[in-house]
C-alpha cells in the first residue's frame, strides 16, 4: 500500500498531482455514479490542499500502521483514504482500471478484528484470485475470441499502435512486428495465456498446487508486461492469497484459535 | 446436501451409492462455503449475495465497484482496416510519449477521451446511458447529467491542464489514422484536434 503510494507519486498520479483534472468518467459503474454525485471527487480535484492532505494521509497512515498494526482506528482511516483515492482515480483515469483492485480487496484484511476473521477473508481472497484468472478464461471462451486465428496479432497492433508509430525503429518495435507478422507464433502466446488462466480452476478443488498457481500468476503478469506493456504491479499483491491457511477447522483447530484470542 | 444429491441422481440404496454419498458428504465438509455456512452464517449470507450480484454484473457485461469483470481483450478482434491514434506534439514537433508506464498510459486515455468528446460535438457519451436508465425528462436524469457529464467548458480547459500536467507548452493534438501494410503501419491521414 505504501509502495503503491510512493510509486504513484513518482508517476504523478496522486490526487494533488491531478489537481483540476477537467475530465471524469464514471462509465456504467453505479458506485462511481453515486460517489461522483456526492461531490466528494470534485472537492478533492478542485482543492489542491485537500488533495495534498489526502495523499499525505495515505502515506503517513500506512507508515504508522507498520509500527502500530493493532491500532484499528488507524487501519479504518487508512482504508477510507485509500478507497477515496481508488474511486476518484478510477473516474479520472477515464478507463476501467483494474490495477488497484488487488490492493482494494487486500486493504480489508487490515480491518479484521481477530485472527479468525483474517483467516476467513484471506482464504476468501484466494478464491477471488482464482475467480479473476478463471473468469478471464471464461470471457475469452464465451466471446469466442479463442478461435480467431490472428486474434493476438490484431491485439498487438491495437495495443502498440502508438509505440509502433512513434518509435518504428526500436528493438521492441522489431520484436512486436515479428510477432504481428507471424500470427502463428503470437497466437501461441494467446493460447498459452488462456490455458494458463484455465488451469486456475484446479485451485477451487485442491490446495496442493497453490505454489505452482502462485508462480503461474506471477508469470502471467510478467508476460503481460513483456507482450502487452500492461503494468499490473499492484494487482500482483493477490499472489499472497496463495499462502492463506485453509479454513477446515477441526475442533482442535477451533480450540487453538480461541486460545490465541 | 448429500441426501439431496442422492435423491436427484436416483441411486438405489446400493453399497456404491452409499459410499459415494459418504465421500461427497465428507469432502463437502471441508469446503470453504460449507464451513462458512456452519460457523459464520452472516459471512456466508454476505458471500452468497455477493456472488449473485457478481453474476448479475457478469450477465449484464458491465461492472460496478467492487464487482469487477475481467474480460479484457476477450472481444473478438479482426478485420480492423483503420487504426486511430491521438497524439500530442510539442512546439518542436516532438511527440509526447503516451505509452510505457502508468503516467503515460494515463495521458493516453486523457487524449483519447478529449478527442472522443470533440468528435461527438462536446456531448458526453454518459448522457445516453443516463437517459437510458432514467428517461429523458426525469429529475434523476437531470441530477446525474449535472453530476456526471463533462461539459464544453471542461473541453476548453483541457489543453491548458494537459500542458501543465506534462510540463510542456504550446502542444498540438492530432488524430492520426493508419493502416497496416503488411510489415508496418502506414499513415493515411492526420486531422488536427482543437
Protein architecture, described:
The complex is a heterodimer of chains A (261) and B (194). Chain A is built from 13 helices and no strands. Chain A is mainly α. Chain A folds into 2 domains: 1-97, no CATH class; 112-248, no CATH class. In chain A, helix 3 packs across helix 4 (48-67) and helix 11 packs antiparallel against helix 12 (210-228). Chain A starts with a helix and ends with a helix. Chain B is an alpha+beta fold. A 3-stranded antiparallel sheet of chain B has the order 1-2-3. In chain B, helix 3 packs across helix 4. Chain B is elongated and about 80 Å long. Residues 1-13 of chain B have low confidence and may be disordered. Classes of the chains: A mainly alpha (261), B alpha+beta (194). At the A-B interface, helix 2, helix 5, helix 6, helix 7 and helix 8 of A face helix 3, helix 4, strand 1, helix 5 and helix 7 of B.
> Uncertain regions of chain A: pLDDT < 50 for 5+ in a row?
none
Strand content of chain A: under 5%
Major sheet summary line of chain A: none
- The helical percent of chain B reads 40-55%
Which chain pair has the greatest contact? A-B, 74 and 68 residues
Estimate the global geometry of chain A from the Cα principal axes.
globular
Structure, briefly:
The complex is a heterodimer of chains A (261) and B (194). Helix content of chain A is 66%, strand content 0%.
Write the layout of secondary structure elements.
The complex is a heterodimer of chains A (261) and B (194).
Chain A: H1 2-10, H2 30-38, H3 40-46, H4 48-67, H5 72-92, H6 101-107, H7 115-142, H8 151-159, H9 161-166, H10 171-181, H11 183-199, H12 210-228, H13 251-260
Chain B: H1 2-9, H2 15-28, H3 32-39, H4 41-60, E1 83-89, H5 102-119, H6 126-134, H7 139-148, H8 152-166, E2 172-180, E3 185-193
Antiparallel strand pairs in B: 1-2, 2-3
Helix pairs in contact in B: 1-2, 3-4, 5-8, 6-7
Amino acid at each position: 500500500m505504501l509502495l503503491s503510494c510512493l510509486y504513484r507519486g513518482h508517476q504523478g498520479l496522486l490526487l494533488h498531482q491531478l489537481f483540476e483534472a477537467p475530465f471524469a468518467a464514471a462509465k456504467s459503474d453505479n458506485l462511481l455514479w453515486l460517489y461522483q454525485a456526492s461531490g466528494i471527487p470534485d472537492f478533492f480535484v478542485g482543492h489542491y490542499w485537500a488533495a495534498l492532505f489526502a495523499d499525505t494521509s495515505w502515506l503517513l497512515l500506512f507508515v504508522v500502521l507498520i509500527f502500530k498494526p493493532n491500532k484499528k482506528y488507524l487501519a479504518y482511516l487508512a482504508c477510507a483514504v485509500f478507497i477515496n483515492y481508488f474511486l476518484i482515480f478510477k473516474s479520472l483515469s477515464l478507463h476501467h482500471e483494474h490495477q488497484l483492485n488487488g490492493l482494494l480487496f487486500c486493504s480489508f484484511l487490515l480491518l479484521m478484528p481477530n485472527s479468525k476473521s483474517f483467516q476467513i477473508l484471506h482464504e476468501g481472497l484466494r478464491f477471488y484470485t482464482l475467480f479473476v484468472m478463471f473468469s478471464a478464461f471464461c470471457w475469452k471462451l464465451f466471446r469466442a475470441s479463442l478461435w480467431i486465428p490472428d486474434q493476438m496479432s490484431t491485439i498487438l497492433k491495437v495495443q502498440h499502435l502508438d509505440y509502433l508509430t512513434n518509435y518504428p525503429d526500436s528493438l521492441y518495435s522489431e520484436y512486436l512486428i515479428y510477432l504481428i507478422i507471424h500470427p502463428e507464433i503470437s497466437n501461441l502466446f494467446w493460447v498459452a495465456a488462456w490455458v494458463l488462466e484455465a488451469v486456475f480452476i484446479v485451485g477451487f478443488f485442491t490446495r496442493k498446487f497453490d505454489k505452482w498457481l502462485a508462480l503461474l500468476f506471477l508469470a502471467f503478469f510478467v508476460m503481460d508486461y513483456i507482450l502487452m506493456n500492461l503494468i499490473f504491479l499492484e494487482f500482483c499483491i493477490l499472489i499472497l492469497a496463495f499462502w492463506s491457511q485453509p479454513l477446515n477447522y477441526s475442533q482442535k483447530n477451533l480450540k487453538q484459535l480461541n486460545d490465541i484470542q | 446436501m448429500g441426501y439431496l444429491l442422492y435423491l436427484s441422481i436416483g441411486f438405489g440404496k446400493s453399497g456404491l451409492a452409499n459410499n459415494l454419498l459418504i465421500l461427497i458428504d465428507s469432502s463437502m465438509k471441508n469446503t470453504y462455503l460449507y464451513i462458512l455456512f456452519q460457523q459464520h452464517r452472516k459471512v456466508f449470507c454476505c458471500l452468497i449475495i455477493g456472488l449473485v450480484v457478481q453474476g448479475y454484473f457478469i450477465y449484464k457485461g458491465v461492472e460496478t465497484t467492487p464487482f469487477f469483470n475481467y474480460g479484457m481483450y476477450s472481444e473478438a478482434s479482426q478485420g480492423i482496416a483503420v487504426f486511430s491514434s491521438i497524439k500530442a506534439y510539442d512546439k518542436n514537433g516532438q511527440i509526447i510519449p503516451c505509452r510505457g508506464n502508468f503516467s503515460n498510459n494515463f495521458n493516453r486515455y486523457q487524449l483519447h477521451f478529449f478527442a472522443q468528446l470533440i468528435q461527438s460535438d462536446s456531448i458526453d457519451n454518459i448522457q445516453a446511458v443516463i437517459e437510458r436508465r432514467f428517461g429523458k425528462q426525469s429529475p434523476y436524469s437531470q441530477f446525474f447529467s449535472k453530476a456526471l457529464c463533462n461539459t464544453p467548458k471542461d473541453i476548453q480547459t483541457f489543453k491548458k491542464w494537459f500542458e501543465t500536467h506534462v510540463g510542456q507548452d504550446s502542444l498540438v493534438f492530432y488524430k492520426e489514422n493508419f493502416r497496416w501494410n503488411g510489415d508496418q503501419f502506414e499513415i493515411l491521414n492526420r486531422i488536427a484536434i482543437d
